[in-house]
Amino acid sequence: QHKMAVWKQPEMKLKTLTHAEADGIVTVKAGYEMPGVQATLEIEYAVDNTGAVTIAQSLHATPGAEVPNLFRFGMTLTMPARYDRVVYYGRGAHESYCDRLSSADLGLYSQKVADQYHDEYVRPQESGTKSDLRWWHLADIGGRGLTVTSDAPFSASALHYPQESLDEGPAKRQGHSPEVEKQKNVSVCLDKVQYGLACVNSWGALPLPEYRIPYADYTFRLKIAPATRL
């Protein structure tokens, strides 16, 4: 929470915003400067006439800049409370992370958002991520919702807790998971990569180098489409 704190709220200055329409697809491009991490960010949204949105998010790092590792690279969104089910093809049935995959089998799973947070953790913390996803569907009781795909396996989570509520900040308040207030809405994270959990010991060892996210260029391409999957 100290060494990598610059990534919690990196300053984002919108510098360019353009749009175009061709062949029934509307494309919006936004360009940002991120002076706090000496980088630029480009996001392109392409919306077709079915309501599907194809997104390309690219981080461009400054060569030679000394910037700490990233926690994750992806996007977040909030969905209404009725989208309380997830169906996915990826690692499950329990949560899985890049350095905790061996016990999670690749398969098809159907679960409830209410069961995604692992509330047996003593302190509030990151929880519920599913990795190695080929596709991920967030749905209401009738199966209607959004299906996410990408050009490579990705990770996703859906919780009744916003990410901010699981972070106790620079100094631990010694809070407990049951004390965190649930929200009715669903907080969604969609990630290309996420920092490993480590747990090599119980006093703060970093993940092994191959499970960290070094400061570098990254591009995450995903498609979010309205769909029904029963």
Q: Which key phrases capture this entry?
A:
230 residues, mainly beta, eleven-stranded antiparallel β-sheet, globular
What does this structure look like?
The chain is mainly β and 230 residues long. The chain is built from no helices and eleven strands. The chain has strands at 13-22, 25-34, 39-47, 53-61, 72-79, 85-92, 105-112, 130-139, 144-159, 186-194, 218-228. Strands 1, 2, 3, 4, 5, 6, 7, 8, 9, 10 and 11 form an eleven-stranded antiparallel beta sheet that branches.
Write the layout of secondary structure elements.
Blueprint: E1 13-22, E2 25-34, E3 39-47, E4 53-61, E5 72-79, E6 85-92, E7 105-112, E8 130-139, E9 144-159, E10 186-194, E11 218-228
Antiparallel strand pairs: 1-2, 2-3, 3-4, 4-11, 5-10, 6-7, 6-8, 8-9, 9-10, 9-11
Helix content: under 10%
Global structural class = mainly beta
Q: What characteristic shape results from the CA principal axes?
A: globular
N-to-C terminal Cα separation, in Å?
A: 41 Å
The number of helices is: 0
What's this model, at a glance?
This protein is an all-beta fold and 230 residues long. It is built from no helices and eleven strands. The radius of gyration is 18 Å and the shape is globular.
